[in-house]
Amino acid sequence: MAGYFLGKTREEMVVLSLASTTVIIVHNHPSGDPKPSTMDIKLTRDVMAASKVLGIDVKDHVVIGVGSYISLRREGHMAQ
Question: Which of 7, 9, 35, 77 could tie 72 with a disulfide, CB 3.0–4.6 Å?
């Protein structure tokens, strides 16, 4: 499956796979703390709004830390 990485900073990093109807955003926090930042939450909502226009469903945004991760969907940050 081919994919594209868009953006130059962690906050701008989004991966879209060719011919996808769903996407999961995943990135790490080099600090090791997976707690989503304000920018992570904003990026998620912006991507969800843009992808809706394209008919792409954003299933989750996962932030990876040292030995743990956080799902923004599970944490309630992806309500539409």
Answer: 77
SS (H, E, C) the chain: CCEEEECCCHHHCEEEECCCCEEEEEEECCCCCCCCCHHHHHHHHHHHHHHHHHCCEEEEEEEECCCCEEECCCCCCCCC
**pTM of the model as a whole:** 0.76
Domain that holds residue 55: 3-71
Residue 58 lies in a domain: yes
Separation of alpha carbons 32 and 41, rounded Å: 18
Q: Is 60 inside a domain boundary?
A: yes
pLDDT digits (tens, 9 = 90+) for 8-20: 555 455 555 556 7
pLDDT at 1: 41
